[in-house]
Amino acid sequence: MSKIIFDSGISLDGFFAGDNRGPNNPMGGVSEKIHKWVLNQKAFWEYLGIEGGKEDNFEGQLIRDVNARTGAFIMGKRMFEEGEVSWPEDLYKADVYVLTHEKREPWVQKGSTTFYFINDGIENALEKAKQSAKGKDIRIQGGANTIQQFLNAGLVDEFFIHIAPVFLGSGFRLFDGIDKDKYELQIAEVIPSDLTTHIRYKLIKK
């Protein structure tokens, strides 16, 4: 049965992205600070179909594991617009549902990635994603506001955060505006490394 998950990097002071985000400045220019551990792993570049990375260790397996369990993605319009201009063809290798007010025909890429543009809310996007996922998990890719919407609707089963040892000071916090009474949180796993701390949480709706 599909779970609804997210898997996100944040700074030590809780920021998912920096200021002044846009297509010419994805994530506010902080990707290398937050996601240094990912960029260091060959598994990440393999997924993109590009040669790169210096390491292939247990953190590479974390990347492979979450990719293997994901059957569909949901993301917000801002994240899509930041990536559309630069993402390689067939990046996601699954159906991607974009939350937007824009009416647009599906964008079918070479391979197995198709972007669908959803105009009627997160519940409809989730139902369509479940059909696409065929029993695999649905990953709420981002940005922070989209993840917050799913959390506050009580729809998330599990998340994995990767806390980088860096302070950003400003930007978009991942957990701003969260309903603190929605869930009981259980720490399922803690994995330290040189570049980040990986923490997996299970969520039980109250």
From TrEMBL:
UniProt xrefs under Gene3D superfamilies: Dihydrofolate Reductase, subunit A
SUPFAM superfamilies: Dihydrofolate reductase-like
Pfam families tied to this protein: RibD_C
Domain of life assignment: Bacteria
Domain annotation Bacterial bifunctional deaminase-reductase C-terminal: ranges: 3-190
Residues in the signal sequence: none
Name by which UniProt lists this protein: Bacterial bifunctional deaminase-reductase C-terminal domain-containing protein
Organism of origin: Mycovorax composti
